[in-house]
Amino acid sequence: MTTVLDILDKGTAYLEKRGIEEARRNMQMLVAHQLGCSRVELYVRFDHPIDDSDLEPLRIALKKRGEGIPIQHLLGTVYFRNHEFKTDARGLIPRPETEELAEWLAKHVTLSEGGRILDMGCGSGVLGLSLAADFPKAEVTLADVSPDALALARENAEFTELSVSFLQSDLFSEIPEDQSFDLIVANLPYVPDAEELAPEVRHDPALALFGGADGMDLIRRFIPEAAKRLAPGGWLALEIGHDQSVETEKLLHAASLTDVLTLKDLSGIPRFPIAKRGSV
Ligand code: GLN
To answer: Cα dihedral angle (272, 141, 136, 88), rounded to 10 degrees?
Structure first.
């Protein structure tokens, strides 16, 4: 008879041998997912036997995790801010840093009734959909160049029951210059093309990660275009790579935006440039 504790111990040892970080936590997540319970609930089930019908899918998931498939893809969902979202290879796996940006915006931005929000490069949709939940009276648009990402974002809108609109667009190619937004957010691809990636990150779509030789190609195109579409008093907020804040701030100033600052993430890295368009 194989018990829950046996499988946790064996699976953890298997993942450790394959160099997977946080092996025990990963194994707990896989077992809890298979048994349909929480990680905490596993503790009171340590001596319960595991059915063969649960063992086989667990073996398959464990093997995949050992090969570096991200835990999020195996579980199929992630928590981001206040909701659970679907995640798979169609979009970047939501990162905890990005949650910090969503939280800061919810706290510091006020929009008047009917304010307009744009999430450019929405990927799975977590940022724009979280903002839709935080600003229920705003009209929110999620845009991405990737039809796959947009399909995933649409599923997430249904999954979270949040109401937003979608647009396939290569940055602002489909958004007229006279259309204005009160808040534009963008977590664009910003990784330099030649950067070595951790095995898990290699499962994110390359389109969502890479931004040219220094990672700044998309950000350089985006900022002047976004500035043109900000309503007076509107906000622009980005997520960028660890060494991109100096150049990004220059671009924001060059686009005549004001109140430019870059917020640090929890690791102290300047991560989220914020700017505003003057109100007159
Ligand atoms: N933060 C991600 C990483 O370092 C990159 C996300 C992005 O390019 N927007 O893997």
So the answer is: -70
